[in-house]
Amino acid sequence: MEWARDALEKIERTRPQRAEQPPPKLDERAMDLLVRDYHPDHADMERLVEVGPNAGTQRFPHELADLLEADGLLPEDFHPSVDLATDVLIIGGGGAGAAAALILEDSGLQVALATKLRLGDSNTVMAEGGIQAALGPDDSTRRHLADSYAGGHGKNDAELLRILCERGPDRIRWLTRLGCLFDRNGDGTFRLRSCGGSSAPRVLACRDYTGLE
Ligand SMILES: Cc1cc2nc3c(=O)[nH]c(=O)nc-3n(C[C@H](O)[C@H](O)[C@H](O)COP(=O)(O)OP(=O)(O)OC[C@H]3O[C@@H](n4cnc5c(N)ncnc54)[C@H](O)[C@@H]3O)c2cc1C
After folding, report:
1. Mutate which of 103, 117, 121, 122 to test ligand 1's pocket (most atoms within 8 Å of Cβ)?
2. Is 59 exposed, middle or buried (0-12, 13-18, 19+ CB in 10 A)?
3. Cα–Cα distances in Å, from 207 out to 24, 174, 186?
4. Which atom of ligand 1 is nearest to the CA of 120?
5. Closest protein CA for atom 36 of ligand 1
6. Whose C-alpha lies nearest to ligand 1, atom 17?
7. Higher model confidence: residue 6 or residue 117?
8. Would the CB of 131 count as within 6 Å of ligand 1?
9. What is the 97 CA–ligand 1 centroid distance (Å)?
10. For the chain: N or C, fewer Cβ within 10 A?
């Protein structure tokens, strides 16, 4: 790290002198050179990849191209075999998979959950707007269902939608018991907001990271 120390010392030593200097004005030629040498579209920072669906057509920064062309980390003769007995195997660890796992485990079944990334690496954790449930004094399951059916232009699976709307409030209470925080009013009741297509305030949120919560 000798070079880093030298560089830092040089920066400190020359700071007062540089602070007095106005930044140099670049003429057209100097600007062209700057762009040619450093702009990713001009400098030699990218190359065509030679393998995969983008072979010969797509340019990538060298570091990414090297990675895309690299051998896999697993040896070619690696044949994984899983020896696992379980009552239920859930594929996917987003909100749906994780909720199913918790509920099934509560009912005494042995549950295994397999997900292609880390648990929670999912669309669910990216949802920031909120989650809907008919919990307001002016709201009802029928109203939630009618709004959603209209919002779906009648293409919704009516039976699934009925289950979603009927069970929504209970699921919110279940999440709360698990420790999920939702925004509250001063009197402790859930803070419900309106959203496009809802005829009553129905959206619960946890600030702007509801899915992560
Ligand atoms: C940016 C963003 C904002 C959103 N905002 C909202 C919102 O405010 N309100 C709202 O209601 N909805 C919102 N949504 C939609 C909502 O997040 C999704 O509809 C919901 O999270 C889907 O949940 P899920 O459990 O079905 O799927 P996911 O959360 O996507 O989980 C799928 C899981 O399956 C795993 N998986 C996938 N393929 C495989 C495989 N082959 N093998 C093993 N595992 C696999 C994934 O790794 C992941 O863990 C938003 C979505 C995004 C992306």
Report:
1. 122
2. middle
3. 46, 19, 15
4. 49
5. 92
6. 124
7. 6
8. yes
9. 10
10. N
- Residue nearest atom 12 of ligand 1, based on CA coordinates: 127
Residue with CA closest to ligand 1 atom 41: 116
Cα of 62 from ligand 1 centre, angstroms: 32
**pLDDT, tens digit, for every residue of 13-71?**
999 998 888 888 889 999 999 888 888 777 788 899 999 899 999 989 899 999 999 98
91 close to 97: Cβ distance less than 8 angstroms: yes
- Alpha carbon of 103 to those of 26, 96, 111, 162, 212: distances in Å? 66, 11, 10, 20, 19
Give me 70's structure tokens: 């690299």
State residue 89 phi and psi, 5-degree precision: -115, 120
Closest CA to 69 of 88, 48, 87, 83: 48
**Domain layout of the chain by residue ranges:** 2-69, 84-126, 129-204
- Ligand 1 atom closest to 92 (CA): 34
Measure the CA–CA gap between 131 and 171, rounded to whole angstroms. 11
Query: Where would I find the H helices in the chain?
Result: 2-20, 28-38, 62-69, 95-106, 141-151, 158-178
